[in-house]
Structure formats: C-alpha cells, structure tokens
Amino acid sequence: MFSLLETPRLLIEAALGRVKSDLVIRNAALVDVATGEVLDKASIAVYRGRIVRVGVGEGLEKHVGSNTLVVDAGGKYVMPGFIDTHVHIESSLLSVTEFSKLALIHGTTAVVADPHEIGNVLGAEGVKYFIEESKHTPMRVFFEVPSCVPAVDPSYGLDTPGAIIDSGQVAVLMHDPSIIGLGEVMDIFSVLDAKTEVLVKIASARLAGKIVDGHAPMLRGEKLDAYIAAGVSSDHETTDPEEGLEKLRKGMYLMLREGSAWKDLKKLSEIARRNIDCRRCLLVADDISVEDLVEKGYMDYIVSLAIEYGVDPVKAIQMATINPAEHIRRDHEIGIIAPGRYADIVISPSIEKITAEKVFVEGELVANNGSFTGKAGGYKYPAKAYNTINVAQPPKPEDLEPRYPVDGEVTVNVIKAIPGSALTGWERHRLRVENGVIQPDPSRDIIRIAVIERHHATGNIGRGFVTGFGLKRGAVAQTIAHDTHNLIVMGADSRDMAAAAQEVIRSRGGIVIVADGEVLGKVELPIAGLVSDKPYQEVYRELKNIENAASSLGIDFANMHLTLGLIALPVIPQLRITDKGLVDAANGKLVPLVVEHEEK
Question: What is the CATH number of the domain that holds 96?
Fold first, then answer.
C-alpha cells in the first residue's frame, strides 16, 4: 500500500513545484493528441520518468532546479513516442535488443510484439526468451500470447507444426505482466467452427481483462459478425477500404498496415481522408525488415507516409500514439503528453515529415539525431534456441523435383506471388514432363518451389511451382516460412535448390542464394532459424548482399525474402504450399499439383 501512495505523493509534490523536475522541455509546439490541437510555446516538466506539468505560454521556471536538464525545443514539434500495436520482431531478422535500438532511433518507444514466429519453432519457451530479452532494452515491449501455434489446427492436416502452444499454456502465459493480450487469431476456420480449443484461448484473455487481436483477410458479412462475436477486437489484414469501413462500423480496431512487403496504407488511407471518426484506426508495420529500418525508418516513416497520402498530420500522429494506447488499454501510461504519463517523447522539426531528432523514454534521452544513446544488451539465448534444424536428410536435387508418371504435358496449379501484398494468386499453366519430371519454365517466370519439414525429421517435402518472382536462374532457400517455419526453397535449377537448402542447414538457419553451385549471398539466422545474434549493422549488410544477389538473378523487388516466406502460410488466400503440398487457403484443404495430363 505504501508504494501505491508514495508515487502519486511524489508526483503531486513535483507538479506543484515543491520538488524540482529532472527534465523540462521548453518552447515546444505540442501535438496534443487528446484534442487534436497543436499548442505553441508549450513546456513539459518530467520527474522520475513521468510528466508532472504541461504548461502553455509559460517556461515552468519554478520546476527548474540546479540538477534539472532544460531542453529548448526551439519551436519544434513535440509529440508522444510512437506505438506500433502489431509487429513481429523476428521479421526484422534482429534480436529484440538490436530491433529496439533502431526502433528508438526512429521515435518508436513502444511496440506490441506477437512472437508467434519464434513460438512456432520453440513453443512457449521461445516466447519467454523474447520476454526476458525485452527486459534489457529501454523500449517498451508489450507481448501477446501467440494464439495460433500452429497457424491452423493440426487436425486439418495442412502442414507439420514445429511446436504447439495449447489453451492451457495460453492461460498460464496470460498471468505474465508483460502479456497484454492474445495475438492475432488467424485460424478463422476454427473460430467459425466454434472449436473449443480456440474459444478457450480467447476466453483466457478476456477473463484476464486483456485484448484479443485478429487476422481476418476478406472476412465480411455474417462470418465477420461471428468472428467479432467470438471476442476478437481488431484486424490488420484488410486491404480494401470498404471492407475496412465495415470492420470499423462493427466496432473493430482497424490496423492500417505499411510493412516492408505488405503495403496497404495508400489504399486504406482513403478511410482516414473521409469525414469519419478515426479513433479506432491504427498505423502498424506487421513485418518490417532491417533494411527498411535502416534506410527508411519505422513509425516515423509510416506516419509521414500517411500524411503524404493525404491524412491530416495530427490525425496520423493520433493513429500512432493515443489510438493504439487506448486499444491496448495503456492510455493512462503512454500515448499522450499529459500529467501522470510516462515521459516517452519525440521532438521533430516538422509535422509534415516526421524526423525523430530527440527521443526520450521516461525522460531519458535514448536517441539523438539518428544515434542510439541508451543502454541495451546483455541477454544470452540458451543453446536450445541455436539447435532447431532437424531434417531427415539434406535434400538432393531429385528430392525437390515435382514428378508425374507419364511424359508429355500437364496442367498444373501454380502459386502467383504478389509483391507488396500478403495475398497470393492461383493460376494454371501447361508444363512439360520429361523423364517423369515436371519441368519449370523460367522464360515464363514459372519456377520450382518446395517446402522441407525441418522440425521433426519427418522427411516431408511439398513440391510445386510459383510465378511472380522473376527469378531467371539459381535458387533461394530460407528457414523463414510462415508460420511453421519449415525450410522453403525456390529455384530455376534443382541442383542450385539443393545446394542452397544444404547451406541453410549447415548455417543452423538463415537465407541463402545460390547460382551455378556458388553461394552469392547469405544471412545466418541461428536463433530458431529466424533471428541473427549479430549487431543490426552487420545484419543490414548481409541482407543488402542478399538483395543484390537476388537482383542479379532477375528478382526486381525489395524484401524478396518476406514475400517468399509468406508463400507457405495456409491461412491467407489463395494458393499456398507447405510440407504437405499445395493448399487452397480459402477453403482450408489440400489440392493436387497436376490438374490434367496430355500424352506426347
């Protein structure tokens, strides 16, 4: 009881000037996200990490003592630290520590992380590893318990999961103070079928007073109503404005996504330009690469892009501050520059294009003009996290070749990759069969793709074809294959495919590009086959090499590895591939590779 009373007593004393503040920021253009105003000549006083005074037209002289740090904002814009309410840190290829450094440099002081990538490989233990590492960084990392580990109930038989986080484990994790909710409920099939396991997970979150985030691409009408009625509060997979409006009108929080590979903000910004209340609109990244974090930024970039697309600047800032704080039920602590809140503050010279010149977390300067100035690091992952590649045997070229018993021509189902979108297309093409092997046709941008089970040494390999990457020669292999993260490999040549897969296995996970038997680029990801243990600067250089190598082989879009990784996710339409084969994601069933055959 003493501590509950002592903190407010101290803050009261500081607010009244009886105790001098630790930090005073003066001469600021304050972005008041509570009212949607910009207040000139504002001052903010901070004591013990919390804001105690916000004054307009005054310098708060009585709050300044001999040990007070006084910062003159020089008329620049002062706003709350940005919040990303939906991100998978693993997609950056960085540890939580290294990710946080880049996030803070770009004014992102809090994130809601759904660690379902590492959870799919290492189960609940993997989630706990991330939680522990997050304690070694000044960035606020709120976690959600992954709801779908694996993404689809194993009873559907669509792929082989690496781990399972069941409803009992979810219930236990909900008691961790770092957990603020249940991560994206992507198993729509199980929700609509009212399966007990997923309903118990949702109930565990709601009983604990925590949020339930969603994943509902193209869900409309009665199915959407049923999904919301189950207890889901948000969606980040919307790509169509009318679909987004329906979700907003039905009470959901709509996450406008602009990540490295899934770019929906331009189209969805139409919603924010309409004369409607956008307090339930949130800006999120979902998946963002180290390359974009270094070269473009993070939430500062996404907010600026929203403004470029015509969203009012203050409204865009609200969508990355107070709106997300309200969604995660933390607006009494973050998301507003107001008394009693943590002093998570960004100073930017412009409100049209955000540049995080100075970033404070709890009143401490953690980033200054693009340099990290805080303290982070020291966590060591256990050996188990480094030993997650367990294949039956390294694949040989013939293991990766789709076969058919009769030579001639066949019509095959082909996955259509769509750069910049989480969706895939479903095409059918005629391909030659020679000596029992269905041949790729790189001249038509039709190449082989395979998924190798890498958790339990089952020997499962799903084989198929993909178009849309533009790969003319060589191969790409990686242990990023959402969400079970088996080993996925695509290529124009089965020998290069096998060589790339074998190099990934030797590296204990990662991304490898091979052409003519030579390794052209490699990012080693030894932590769960998903995350590097190197500083972000080194990972950035390695990924740039991958991008350059991919370009030399014909791939002309950035963050190719993110698009490839999503080809294996059997919960987003249309056609996908897992270690079990091709999956009709809209209907949750396996489909054959060959549609018809015509003999020579």
Answer: 3.20.20.140
Is residue 338 one of the residues assigned to a domain?
no
Do 127 and 71 share a domain, yes or no? no
Residue with tokens 């903010």: 44
Residue 83, classed as helix, strand or coil, is strand
208 and 301, same structural domain? Answer: yes
Residue 406 shares a structural domain with residue 502: yes
| The predicted structure's pLDDT at residue 515 | 98
**DSSP 8-state symbol, 314:** H
133 part of a folded domain: yes
Rounded CA-CA distance 538/287 in Å is 20
Please give the Cα distance from 580 to 451 (Å, whole number).
8
Q: Residue 259 class from Cβ within 10 Å (0-12 exposed, 13-18 middle, 19+ buried)?
A: buried
Amino acid 2: pLDDT = 45
Task: Tell me: do 69 and 110 sit in the same domain.
Answer: no
**Same domain flag for 68 and 170:** no
Residues 154 and 40 in one domain: no
Closest CA to 415 of 471, 374, 358, 467: 467
Give DSSP secondary structure letters for 135-160: TTSSSEEEEEE-S-SSSS-GGG-SS-
CA-to-CA distance for 481 and 306, rounded, in angstroms? 30
Domain total in the chain: 3
What pLDDT is attached to residue 293?
Answer: 98
Percent of residues in the chain assigned helix, strand, coil, to nearest 5: 30, 30, 40
Q: Are residues 299 and 389 in the same domain?
A: no
The per-type count for the chain, helices as H runs and strands as E runs, is 16, 30
Domain enclosing residue 416, as ranges:
385-599
Query: Per the domain annotation, does 249 fall within a domain?
Result: yes
> Going by DSSP bridges, is the β-strand pair 510-515/518-524 parallel, antiparallel, or unpaired?
antiparallel
User: What secondary structure letter does DSSP report for 529?
Assistant: T
Q: Tokens representing 169?
A: 């484990």
Cis ω for the linkage preceding 150 (within 30 of 0):
yes
Q: Is 270 exposed, middle or buried (0-12, 13-18, 19+ CB in 10 A)?
A: middle
Residue 62, classified by CB atoms within 10 Å of its CB into exposed (0-12), middle (13-18) or buried (19+), is: middle
pLDDT, mean of each 10-residue run, the chain (600 residues): 72 96 98 98 98 94 97 98 98 98 98 97 98 98 96 91 97 97 94 96 98 96 98 97 97 96 94 94 96 97 98 98 98 98 98 98 98 96 98 97 96 95 94 98 98 98 98 98 97 98 98 98 98 98 97 94 95 95 95 79
Closest CA to 489 of 573, 394, 583: 394
At residue 6, the pLDDT reads 77
**Tokens matching residue 547:** 């991008």
> Rounded CA gap, 544 and 588, in Å?
36
pTM for this one? 0.94
Last residue of a domain, one of 285, 308, 327: 327
Within a domain: 272 = yes
> How far is 571 from 101, CA to CA, in rounded Å?
32
Last residue of a domain, one of 40, 56, 75: 75
The position carrying tokens 């399966």 is: 195
Helices (H), ranges, 159-237: 167-173, 188-192, 196-207, 221-229
**DSSP category for residue 440:** P
Give the strand pairing for 23-32 and 77-80.
parallel
Verify that 68 and 103 share a domain, yes or no.
no
